[in-house]
Amino acid sequence: MAKELYFNHDGSASKKLLAGVDMVAELVGLTLGPKGRNVVLQNKYGPPKIVNDGETVLKEIELEDPLENVGVKLVRQAGAKTNDLAGDGSTTSIVLAQGLIAEGVKVIAAGLNPIQISRGIEKTAKALVSELKLMSREVEDHELADVAAVSAGNDYAVGNMISDALRQVGRRGVVTIEKG
Hints:
Blueprint: H1 12-29, E1 39-41, E2 49-51, H2 54-60, H3 66-86, H4 90-109, H5 114-135, H6 144-151, H7 156-169
Antiparallel strand pairs: 1-2
Helix pairs in contact: 1-2, 1-3, 1-4, 3-4, 6-7
């Protein structure tokens, strides 16, 4: 089957792509943070699922409009890469990506060079990472359970298990969790 090609002469392609990005960020953003809310996902072959993590919501979103779906795929890729690198944070990266894409579309429409915008984003990101490294600190042993619990959807039983496992293997150790 031939691929569909879209041109952005009148700005309509950008608007549709951005609509897909906005839809994903709005849905996934509901789950953001320790006070994130639940999202109900309709399942084609079973009962609806109630979830509260952005990664699960992200996997289920499929829009009918092909251009809007390109926007979905763009931010899905950003979320997946963050999750692969950090093990968490896909929701935050999607919300940030939405802001970057929305502002990028505006400044490109105003005539700025996309290559210069990209270089500016990279330069700013490096400066931010350097600043965050200066502000960061090691997590104390007594804080591990809280950090792990937040990552486990505020499940403190799981947080305590992860904390105990990390204490046993040490800071550089690896803990593998298997469903069973």
